[in-house]
Amino acid sequence: MVRKTTIHAQQQTLPGSEALMSPRAEFIRDSYRGSGKLDGKVALITGGDSGIGRSTAIHFAREGASVAITHLAEEQEDALEAKRLVEAEGARCLLIEADLRQRDVCDDVIRQVIDTFGALNTLVNNAGTQQVSKDMTELSDEQWKNTFATNIDSLFYLTRAALPHLGEDDTIINNASINAYIGPEFLIDYSATKGAIISFTRSLSNQVVGRGIRVNAVAPGPVWTPLQPATLGAHDPDMLEDFGSGTPMGRAGQPSELGPCFVFLASLDSSFISGQTLHPNGGTVVNG
Question: How many CB atoms lie within 10 A of CB 36?
Answer without folding.
Answer: 10
